[in-house]
């Protein structure tokens, strides 16, 4: 996808903007679905993200910046939505929910339990974990995306992994060696 597509979208070309949305909608929706655990909320979040993109298109410098900007806005909007809801208001992901990120073959029971436990994490640690392990972003990029210090990101990862390991071992679903 050439930078000319971005320039065309900035110039008002609707088909170019639609192409940008199509290229990034899976990633934005996936972040929303994993953070909010509800398909309808993830769709609303994605719509809000792309509406913000339309309004801020002139501030996007390159396609690389666009991807970074979309992840940042999606994660921050999801955190804002979660702050407005009590933690108990989130529901687990529906079985068979399609997520844009490629999935390796794995134990469905463990995956379901891991998703449930991830959903119990507070908003910022959940965002860090999803950006790290679903979006495969490095610590520095996560820190920039969520506007937090690198050491805070590292702390969220370490504490979250420890908590998830403890809960999964407590549920006797996984051996310590299986988690990163």
Could you list the spans in which at least 5 consecutive residues all have pLDDT below 50?
Answer: none
| Name of the CATH first level of the largest domain | Mainly Alpha
Radius of gyration: 17 Å
Report the CATH architecture of the largest domain. Orthogonal Bundle
Shape: elongated
Looking at the chains present, what oligomeric state does this protein adopt? single chain
What is the arithmetic mean of pLDDT? 82
Question: How is the main sheet built?
Answer: none
Beta-strand content: under 5%
Q: What is the helix tally?
A: 8
Broad structural category: mainly alpha
Question: Could you spell the SSE succession in H and E letters?
Answer: HHHHHHHH
* Terminal residue distance: 34 Å
Describe this structure in words.
- The structure is a single chain.
- The protein is mainly α and 180 residues long.
- The chain folds into 2 domains: 1-86, Rna Polymerase Sigma Factor, Chain: A (Orthogonal Bundle); 105-180, Winged helix-like DNA-binding domain superfamily/Winged helix DNA-binding domain (Arc Repressor Mutant, subunit A, Orthogonal Bundle), CATH 1.10.10.10.
- Helices cover 68% and strands 0% of the residues.
- It is built from 8 helices and no strands.
- The chain has helices at 3-10, 14-36, 39-56, 63-84, 108-119, 123-133, 139-146, 150-170.
- Helix 2 crosses helix 4, helix 6 (123-133) crosses helix 7 (139-146) and helix 7 (139-146) packs across helix 8.
- It is elongated, with a radius of gyration of 17 Å.
- The model has no long low-confidence stretch (mean pLDDT 82).
